[in-house]
Amino acid sequence: MKIAVIGAGVTGCLLANSLSSTGMDVSIFEKSRGCGGRASTKQTSWGQCDLGATIVPAQKADFIKFMQSLCDKNIASKWPENVFLSKQNPGVTQALEKYVGDRQYYVFNHKMNAACRHWIQNANLNTSSLISQVRYLVGKGWQLKSNDIWQPEWFDKVVLTTPWPQSQVLIEKSELPLKQSDFSQSWTSCWSIALKLEQLVANDVDLVYLKDQSIQTLVRDSNKPLRPQVIRLEEASKSEIWVVQLANKCSDDLGKLGKEKAISIAIKGLCELFDLPYESISNHYAHYWRYARPSPGQKPLGILSLPAEGIYVGGDWSFGPSIESAYEAALALSQAITTGE
Ligand SMILES: Cc1cc2nc3c(=O)[nH]c(=O)nc-3n(C[C@H](O)[C@H](O)[C@H](O)COP(=O)(O)OP(=O)(O)OC[C@H]3O[C@@H](n4cnc5c(N)ncnc54)[C@H](O)[C@@H]3O)c2cc1C
After folding, report:
1. 10-residue stretch averages of pLDDT, the chain, 341 residues long
2. Which CATH architecture fits 2-37+116-180+301-339?
3. CATH says 55-111+185-294 is which class?
4. Which of 124, 108, 126 is nearest to 116 (CA)?
5. DSSP reduced 3-state for 56
6. Closest Cα partner for 217 from 108, 83, 325?
7. What is the value of pTM for the model shown?
8. For ligand 1, which residues put their CB under 6 angstroms from it?
9. Which residue ranges make up each domain of the chain?
10. Are the CB atoms for 294 and 185 separated by under 8 Å?
11. In this predicted model, what pLDDT tens digit does every residue of 65-103 receive, in sequence order?
């Protein structure tokens, strides 16, 4: 059976892994140059940093079990041990309190998109392939329009794992009656800024959540397990990389053009929190994310399918806004495809 999966984020890659392990012939089509989607890693000239999803919080028992199985295979690790919360802006070290939540915390080893690469080993990955339309022909199956050209290959089934707004456009163009109810998403943004620090922060704080402030998280990225740290090894013992993510509201207010301001908020936040001189920051890299998320009060939609024609649609948005939701979506899609439901 030939399956086309659109999107190589966590949902698409996990799904490809599950389907190819049952012997299906899986091809993934991804518009970017690599896999990972919003679980993305940036390689700069001065180091590597995870600029999208920073950690994998796990809440439900089956997802904790899944993450634990990845730890056993050396694909993920439990990290960080200590999570802190700061309620002050600007924070001071003393204001940090231990955050005790109902979740286990993990990261993927090496870099956040490394797990995706592992999952698609037995699938065909087509990168730089923007799918603008999918069409169904009775008796032939599914055909894809990639980079404005209809591809000659036909597939038995097609799975859209792109974010909801992109999936919605493809569904509409396919002219198939996939029931979408009144599901809607609103757009928000997040400035994510990596900072190289020419000294080590002398404490055991690796992750700080900030509440109702212009910054939402600070992560000691180079302390994550199995990271190459900074590029030159001799520097690794005296420098580290932090990733600062600004709150959605602050990012929306700054907009894409507010890069310099976003960087200065990140530098100020990190330096004030740990009482560091501003000059200790030697490099920075900023990325502006714009993404859709369920509108307030909106219930997750679950996955959509038309088994007779063989089209399936799902992503993190099917169950929530996280890697755990992407896992749930991949599981639900895989089950629906293999049982033909
Ligand atoms: C800044 C930021 C921080 C986050 N932090 C965390 C965190 O700490 N923990 C956590 O659990 N979650 C976090 N998340 C959320 C998490 O990253 C997502 O829930 C998860 O990665 C979604 O996976 P997905 O595969 O469903 O979607 P995506 O990762 O969006 O994957 C969809 C893929 O489809 C591709 N695509 C889109 N349109 C097309 C098209 N037309 N043709 C071909 N390809 C297409 C995209 O390029 C992308 O690779 C964060 C997200 C952001 C943006």
Report:
1. 98 98 97 96 92 96 98 96 76 70 92 96 98 96 98 98 94 85 83 95 89 92 80 66 96 98 96 92 97 82 94 94 97 95 74
2. 3-Layer(bba) Sandwich (3.50)
3. alpha beta
4. 108
5. strand
6. 83
7. 0.95
8. 6-12, 29-32, 37-39, 52-57, 130-131, 161-163, 166, 190, 192, 245, 289, 291, 315-316, 321-323, 325-326
9. 2-37+116-180+301-339, 55-111+185-294
10. yes
11. 999 999 999 999 999 988 888 876 655 555 778 888 789
- Round the average pLDDT of the chain to a whole number and report it: 92
Closest ligand 1 atom to residue 316 Cα is 26
Percent of the chain as helix, strand, coil, to the nearest 5: 30, 30, 40
Ligand 1 atom closest to the Cα of residue 321 is 19
The Cα–Cα gap between 253 and 134 comes to 36
Q: What is the pLDDT of residues 302-328, one digit of tens each?
A: 999 999 999 999 999 999 999 999 999
Cα gap 258→262, rounded to integer Å = 6
